[in-house]
Design brief:
Layout lengths: L2 H14 L29 E11 L2 E13 L2 E6 L26 E7 L13 H6 E12 L2 E10 L5 H7 L4 H9 L1 E9 L5 E10 L5 E10 L17 E5 L12 E8 L9 E9 L11 E4 L10 H6 L14 E4 L14 H7 L9 H21 L9 H15 L4 E6 L1 H12 L4 E7 L8 H21 L2 H6 L3 H14 L2 E5 L8 E5 L1 H13 L7 H9 L7 H11 L4 H11 L6 H8 L4 H21 L18 E6 L7 H8 L5 E6 L6 H4 L1 H12 L23 H7 L7
Parallel strand pairs: 13-14, 13-15, 15-16, 16-19, 19-20
Antiparallel strand pairs: 1-2, 1-9, 2-3, 3-4, 5-6, 6-7, 7-8, 8-9, 10-11, 11-12, 12-14, 17-18
Helix pairs in contact: 6-7, 7-18, 8-9, 10-17, 10-18, 12-13, 12-14, 13-15, 13-18, 15-22, 16-18
Length: 724
């Protein structure tokens, strides 16, 4: 270790633990008037923050941290993952200085203090009085509104008791530099209570060029009984490692913790919330230094759903972990983040058996009543529902980077997660090395009219694809006519099926008329694993065989059980529904198949009614405008996607100057996760985002339609079909 590194280490250690006050002689120091320090009042507890700066020539390093005095002779200290001035950060305390290792806020020490400790103790300064050449009273000054007196002293060599042990181990060259160093301490002592409110330590080491280390410590919370040995730091953002609150698959290495952020960043002294994070280390030998943050869809889906996505061998996306560390963030209000904006009131309504007498209109009102009940409960619990927006979500992503000490992040967004990723690109461009947008939802898109058109286009694409496929057309000729016939029959005679969800055991009845039949087809097209069975489902319904209609609902019930409806409402109502164009929606309704209009109208009407109850303010106009960015971005779309069509990808790319747009033949929603080709393209892109990835496989895998639905599939999803 070089002499310079040795001194900087010792200096920084002294700044973090002021018990180790480095004595520093300098023969040319001025003689100061010996005014003396007053007798200080004892304290039993205090909090402190420190801001340290190391200056050598033109180079500057900073570190920020905080700690608590927890006993007369003990202190708990944390070191910060980033400095307030956003310069390089040094946080590891060890044999030598090292850059932040990505661990974020971490406990540096919990150790006894020597008699020279003054930072949080501020009680006995006898050792300082003995070691100092002189003490001078500089004058009176206010510190954070407290009237204090400013004192200054210089320390003599080797007289600070806590440093003697270290000094005996110095090499001769280090000892010589120490003897020529300058060490000055400034105190601001309260005039009324004789406590230390602020301390500035300045150490100058005669290296070439000279090295100056200064640390400003500020103290609050004197004699606060709430300060305890495990009291966490109060600075936000911060990351606190902890036990995993979700089940980690067997054999999977994972680390968990909470990202602590402000609930509302316009209120810096307001309440904080805790966002759950799961870190999946890369499994390969040469991982990328940039972590990938998975941004789930919904809005309202928890990031921890990525556990199965990225750890199950059968999942194409599991290969992504070979070269990348993954961060699964439960966005605010979702999953096991605290607080949760889940609405069990709505889950109860949806799982209540149908009595066969309730009209669709009455059922809709029951659901809206459940929305109102959830809203009332969350407000009564003190939740600020207006704080759950995409912009705040994006700030959380940036705070995650800061808290973990990462230089940049790669973003992997799916569905709504793409809108969140775009917002991060807009608001925090320095945060992002690259972005993958799978089934992109650009903020300027009108989700309601866009969904109607996308559903219609996906259905027409499926009709055409089946007609041009010999096997599909042979099994299901005139598929478009079959779709119309099935919808008309179910409108005339609605039926009820009992759905066995893929996740959970609650059997759910579903009343199906023409409108709900259209929704079933929509869900089939949306869900890649069952999309190949869509023609067979339509044909069976046209022939009054309805058992297969449970399939799409079995999938969606399993997914929706993990969605935070309250968070979904807050985001949608602030960022999307508030910007709906009634004129555009009506125009879209005129361009789609008649059999789809009741379903798309119901989705539109329910969204507006729900938002009237949720009562959150409209987001700023920028949330409805295109995002401009030059960050390398991969945009993936699926051929049969009924909600985020390929046209959205082209639209988003117009203002993303370094984007690559790919539409995958035969794929549907979120092809980066569900398509082996999409996964392969994503992997190539993340390896080097500056090089356009090979996308040749995008046109190689057309959808192969099934000509029948296996009996085993029906037994899995339909509670009225006997299990084989």
């Amino acid at each position: 270790m070089s002499i310079l590194a040795s001194y900087i280490y010792r200096a920084l250690l002294a700044l973090v633990l002021p018990a180790l006050l480095l004595p520093a002689p300098q023969s040319t120091r001025p003689t100061l008037a010996a005014d003396g320090l007053p007798t200080l009042a004892p304290t039993t507890s205090a909090r402190f923050t420190y801001l340290s700066t190391i200056q050598r020539g033109d180079a500057t390093w900073t570190a920020y941290g905080e700690g608590t005095r927890i006993a007369p002779d003990r202190v708990s200290i944390w070191s910060g993952a980033t400095s307030r001035s956003n310069l390089a950060t040094f946080t590891r305390i060890g044999p030598s200085l090292s850059r932040n290792d990505g661990a974020g806020w971490r406990r540096v020490s919990d150790q006894p203090l020597g008699p020279t400790y003054v930072a949080t103790r501020g009680a006995q300064l006898d050792a300082l009085r003995e070691a100092a050449d002189a003490v001078e009273r500089i004058g009176d000054v206010s510190v954070d509104g407290v009237a204090t007196t400013h004192y200054q002293l210089w320390l003599r060599p080797g007289r600070a008791a806590a440093f003697v042990g270290d000094a005996t181990q110095l090499h001769s060259g280090e000892r010589e530099q120490l003897d020529r160093a300058s060490y000055k301490v400034d105190f601001w002592i309260g005039q009324a209570d004789q406590r230390v409110y602020q301390q500035l330590v300045t150490l100058t080491i005669p290296t070439d060029p000279a090295t100056t280390v200064s640390t400003l410590l500020t103290f609050t919370g004197f004699n606060d009984p709430a300060i305890a040995i495990d009291a966490p730091p109060t600075t936000v953002p911060r990351f606190e490692p902890g036990a995993c609150r979700v089940a980690i698959p067997e054999g999977v290495q994972a680390e968990c913790g909470d990202l602590v952020v402000l609930a509302d960043r316009s209120q810096p002294d307001g309440p904080t919330i805790r966002l759950a994070v799961v870190r999946l280390p890369a499994t390969g030998p040469n991982p990328s230094p940039t972590p990938v943050v998975y941004l789930a869809g919904g809005p309202g889906q928890a990031g921890n759903v990525g556990l199965s996505l990225f750890t199950t061998d059968e999942s194409p996306s599991s290969k992504l972990r070979e070269n990348h560390t993954l961060l699964l963030l439960d966005q605010r209000g979702t999953g096991v983040s605290q607080p949760s904006l889940a609405c069990p009131e709505m889950d109860t309504v949806e799982s209540t058996p149908d009595d066969g007498k309730t009209s669709p209109q009455a059922g809709r009102q029951v659901t809206l009543d459940a929305v109102a009940a959830c809203h009332s409960r969350l407000v009564a619990e003190g939740e600020d529902l207006a704080a759950y927006t995409t912009a705040e979500n994006a700030a959380d992503v940036n705070d995650l980077r800061l808290a973990l000490g990462a230089e940049q992040l790669d973003l992997y967004g799916a569905s709504y997660g793409t809108r969140l990723a775009l917002t991060v690109l807009r608001d925090y461009p320095q945060t992002v090395r690259s972005a993958v947008l799978s089934s992109v939802l650009p903020p300027q898109a009108d989700l309601q009219s866009g969904r109607a058109l996308a559903f219609n286009d996906a259905l027409e694409t499926m009709f055409t694809a089946c007609a041009t496929d010999a096997a599909c057309n042979g099994a299901f000729p005139n598929l478009r006519e079959s779709f119309s016939r099935a919808a008309a029959q179910l409108d005339a005679e609605p039926i009820t099926v009992r759905v066995r969800p893929l996740v959970g055991e609650q059997i759910s009845p579903v009343r199906i008329d023409g409108q709900v039949f259209a929704r079933a087809v929509y869900l089939m097209l949306l869900t890649s694993p069952v999309a190949p069975f869509t023609p067979a489902l339509i044909d069976s319904a046209a022939n009054r065989q309805y058992a297969a209609l449970t399939i799409p609902f079995a999938f969606i019930f399993g997914i929706s059980a993990g969605v935070s409806q309250g968070m979904s409402n807050s985001v949608n109502c602030s960022d999307e529904i508030a910007f709906i164009s009634e004129q555009d929606f009506r125009a879209a309704q005129g361009q789609i198949l008649p059999e789809l209009r009741a379903e798309t109208q119901e989705v539109y009407d329910f969204a507006k009614a729900q938002c009237a109850i949720w009562n959150v303010p409209q987001s700023p106009a920028i949330e409805n405008q295109p995002v401009v960015s030059d960050v390398p971005t991969l945009i993936l779309s699926g051929q049969f996607d009924p909600i985020t069509p390929g046209s959205y990808g082209q639209e988003a790319a117009q203002t993303l100057s370094r984007s690559t747009v790919v539409e995958l033949l035969g794929s549907s929603h979120d092809p980066a996760s569900t398509s082996p080709c999409g996964v392969a393209i994503t992997q190539r892109f993340l390896q080097d985002p500056t090089v356009a990835p090979d996308t040749g496989c995008a046109d190689d895998t057309p959808l192969v339609f099934a000509t029948e639905i296996p009996t085993a599939a029906l037994a899995l999803t339909n509670a009225d079909v006997p299990t084989p």
